[in-house]
Write a structure and sequence with these properties.
alpha/beta; five-stranded parallel beta sheet; four-stranded parallel beta sheet; 37% helix; binds N-carbamoyl-L-aspartate
């Protein structure tokens, strides 16, 4: 058994934005995530969160985020409650998010919320005494994805300071890159944002990155960045967020990485993707040493285990 104490600083904390966490706190979460790996794989067993209940409220589709949170609480000996399909709940009768949250708070010890509206998790956190974890709020942010992304980079690259990261694809509507850009700046990575002009990183995120001392470059051509980068972070064009489908059709399929496009990449360059992918990464890339997106998806379990341990005050 490990005997290191688990930090009490996080107990009861909401994780709504990556800005809620300092660099030291992120490091602490990632260190604990490292210790969670054998438990996440089922090689070691624990009842650290025995009797605790986590509520999953997903008002948008999800595979990895929902299932890795469920796996995480189960691996820790706790249980999860799932709202299920919102159309089968009182939400379809017109219940407000605030009222739903007040109920769910009384049924569980922490709430994971994914919602189509930006700011929904912040609103929910005001109505709940129990920790609220943002699992994606519209085109806003996705802080737990950022933690597992940083964890994946740290495990593969050792150090984040000074590494070159290109974020590619839908940087406007893709929420994962919004929180990731801020976090990577705090860790000293150099970033290039590669997107069609209509899908570039929002001005607000660029301003925040600059305020934190980052000097991101903005580009449209993927081939220009491939030889230079250590991490290629590719995203899906977020079809569901386009107000006009004709606008989506103009940019769909803009970027596609296949084996031939990687010819000039550094041998240790890694490719990440929050998934699901459409055509932006050809399946032939999966068997190259660059592909880290499935490892990244697995990392969602130890990282979310660490987070649950911290906010629920579990002990190993
Ligand atoms: C992402 C999301 O939901 O923002 N998926 C995820 O959580 N791994 C990315 C996406 O949907 O494209």
């Amino acid at each position: 058994m490990d005997s290191h104490p688990i930090s009490m600083d996080f107990k009861g904390m909401d994780i709504v934005s990556i800005r809620d966490l300092s660099k030291e706190q992120i490091d602490e979460i990632l260190d604990l995530s490292e210790r969670m790996i054998p438990y996440a794989k089922g090689e070691r067993l624990t009842k650290a969160l025995d009797g605790r209940i986590l509520s999953n409220l997903f008002f948008e589709p999800s595979t990895r985020t929902r299932m890795s949170f469920e796996s995480a609480i189960n691996r820790l000996g706790g249980r999860s409650l799932d709202l299920g399909n919102p159309s089968m709940t009182s939400v379809s009768k017109g219940e407000t998010l605030a009222d739903t949250i007040r109920m769910v708070e009384s049924y569980s010890d922490a709430i994971v919320l994914r919602h189509p509206h930006e700011g929904a998790a912040r609103l929910a956190s005001r109505f709940s005494e129990k920790p609220v974890i943002n699992a994606g709020d519209g085109a806003g942010s996705h802080p737990t994805q950022t933690l597992l992304d940083i964890f994946t980079i740290r495990r593969n690259k050792g150090n984040i300071d000074g590494i070159k990261v290109a974020m590619v694809g839908d940087l406007k509507y893709g929420r994962t890159v919004h929180s990731l850009a801020e976090a990577l700046t705090i860790f000293g990575a150099e970033m290039t944002f590669v997107a069609p002009p209509s899908l570039q990183m929002p001005k607000e995120t660029i301003k925040q990155v600059e305020k934190l001392g980052g000097k991101p470059k903005v580009k449209t051509k993927l081939e220009e960045v491939i030889p230079d980068v250590d991490v290629l972070y590719i995203t899906r064009i977020q079809k569901e967020r386009f107000p006009d489908i004709a606008e989506y059709q103009k940019v769909a399929g803009t970027y596609r990485v296949d084996v031939s496009s990687l010819r000039e990449a550094k041998t240790d360059m890694i490719i990440m993707h929050p998934l699901p992918r459409l055509e932006e990464i050809s399946p032939e890339v999966d068997s190259t040493p660059h592909a880290k997106y499935f490892e990244q998806a697995f990392n969602g379990v130890p990282v979310r285990m660490a987070l649950l341990m911290l906010v629920l005050g579990g002990e190993l």
